[in-house]
Specification:
The protein is an alpha+beta fold. It has a single domain, classed as Aminopeptidase, CATH 3.40.630. The protein is 28% helix and 37% strand. The protein is built from four helices and seven strands. Helix 3 links the parallel strand 4 and strand 5.
Length: 158
């Protein structure tokens, strides 16, 4: 179990490397209903997408994968290790993502979230994301059903 008294100054965010993928995939497997395969992460890294990990003492605790499309940053994947949830890493990731978006000159940040993911929806709303659409039956579920996605946007004033 992770020490809940980790100070933010002890965390580092780094560009995701292929050497991080074993830990990233373990987090992905335990936090997503339909986890990405290794190939999906490799493709994002090979494209040069903004992919970052959050490290504590060289252990990956969280990650995000984004894509830059013209002047829009799209959050494709974001997860926190189960053992590290509840200590503010979601906010740490969001600060990093918004900072990257501004650095890249993005005017908006987009994401989709499962309609059932209350924790993520609350996080995004705290970060001033607004729901703008619903994508019906967007996500697959483990029982071969489909779940709606809510589309959120945050407009940035660089």
């Amino acid at each position: 179990m992770l020490d809940m008294n980790i100070q933010e100054s002890e965390l580092r965010q780094r560009a995701m490397q292929s050497s991080h993928l074993t830990e990233v995939l373990a987090i992905e497997q335990h936090s997503q209903a339909m986890p990405w395969a290794r190939l999906s992460f490799e493709e994002s890294l090979n494209r040069g997408d903004p992919c970052r990990v959050v490290l504590h003492e060289e252990k990956v605790l969280a990650f995000h994968v984004c894509s830059l499309v013209v002047d829009e940053l799209h959050i494709l994947n974001l997860a926190v290790a189960k053992s590290a949830q509840g200590i503010g890493l979601g906010h740490f990731l969001m600060r990093d993502i918004i900072g990257l978006a501004k650095e890249y000159g993005a005017s908006k940040v987009f994401l989709e979230v499962r309609v059932s993911n209350e924790i993520a929806k609350t996080l995004y709303q705290k970060w001033q994301f607004e729901q703008i659409a619903i994508r019906e039956k967007y996500y697959r579920t483990p029982d071969k059903q489909r779940e709606d996605a809510l589309v959120f946007v945050r407009r940035l004033n660089n």
